[in-house]
UniProtKB/TrEMBL annotation:
The lineage of its organism: Bacteria, Pseudomonadati, Bacteroidota, Flavobacteriia, Flavobacteriales. Keywords: DNA-binding, Transcription, Transcription regulation. It comes from Maribacter spongiicola. GO terms for molecular function: DNA-binding transcription factor activity; sequence-specific DNA binding. Pfam families: AraC_binding, HTH_18. This is AraC-like DNA-binding protein.
Length: 288
């Protein structure tokens, strides 16, 4: 069964299932977490078949299509964020840290190497914490009396943080060579994690963080990525701009300030310079 506990978030728990119907929320789902508590079988994801087992966690992003085919009785918990969640301006959603949640999800949306959607965890304790939180949300959902919004809100926030922390991201854009250096990967991860803190992304700050000379940091970064440090940071910011234009109703000025541009005019000029079109034209192209 499924129930919408917060407007535009659906919690679903299925116990001992040997057959799963096609998810009716697929066309309006933005992001989904599926935890397999028990059972074995396969999932067909975007035409590719992968196995699942007890204690595995999968995440799905917009346009993912999946079908679960159990080999044994399967128990699952799913948390589904519908597309309207990040566009909704209802009084209920205004009390939630929606933009903070979106920031956690966006790393997954931009993770080009994350193809088959099964979560891999840096430590087993992270898996254990995530599973405990998912079960807490499911338990709250099953309560006969009114659910506790505080428990749901905080549990979901930590769930998203744990998922974002464990996503293994490697930028495979054409302008960047395959990353083989663990240090360059650490630098890239640091940039992604601190993209909203411009003061931490200056050449001087990065050099201090990674124990390099100021004049060597930029040289080192370009040597390993074939792109300048400044250009990489701007390109990543613009990817986040595109994500916000696709999935939120934020004004151009709000996006500009959030990502460290002077104003919407500055953002528009930068976007046009790097992308070959204005942000208005890009917005129109995805709305058509």
């Amino acid at each position: 069964m499924a129930r919408t506990i917060i407007e535009n978030i659906v919690i679903a728990k299925y116990e001992e299932q040997t057959f799963f119907e096609f998810c009716k929320y697929t066309t309006i789902r933005f992001f989904e977490i599926v935890y397999f508590e028990k059972g074995t079988g396969t999932i067909k994801i975007n035409g590719k078949t992968v196995p699942y087992a007890a204690n595995s966690v999968f995440v799905f992003i917009p346009d993912d299509i999946y079908i679960v085919n159990p080999d044994s009785a399967t128990t699952t918990v799913a948390i589904k964020f519908l597309k309207s969640f990040f566009r909704n301006t209802s009084a209920q959603n205004e009390t939630l840290p929606v933009n903070n949640w979106f920031r956690k999800i966006e790393e997954i949306l931009n993770s080009e190497s994350h193809q088959l959607r099964e979560m891999q965890f840096e430590t087993e304790s992270d898996r254990s914490h995530l599973v405990s939180l998912i079960n807490m949300v499911a338990t709250e959902y099953m309560r006969e009396q009114t659910f506790d919004i505080f428990i749901i809100q905080n549990s979901v926030s930590v769930i998203l943080h744990l998922i974002a922390r464990n996503i293994q991201f490697i930028n495979t854009a054409d302008t960047v060579k395959e990353v083989k250096s663990s240090k360059i990967q650490q630098i890239i991860n640091f940039i992604h994690a601190n993209i909203y803190n411009s003061e931490l992304l200056t050449t001087k700050s990065l050099a201090e963080e990674f124990h390099m000379a100021d004049n060597y940091m930029s040289e080192y970064f370009k040597k390993h990525t074939d792109v300048s440090l400044k250009k990489y940071i701007i390109n990543y910011k613009l990817k986040l701009v595109e994500t916000r234009l696709k999935y939120t109703d934020l004004q151009f000025s709000e996006i500009a300030i959030e990502l460290g541009f002077t104003d919407s005019s500055h953002l528009n000029k930068t976007f046009q310079s790097y992308k070959g079109m204005t942000i208005g034209a890009f917005k129109a192209s995805i709305s058509a």
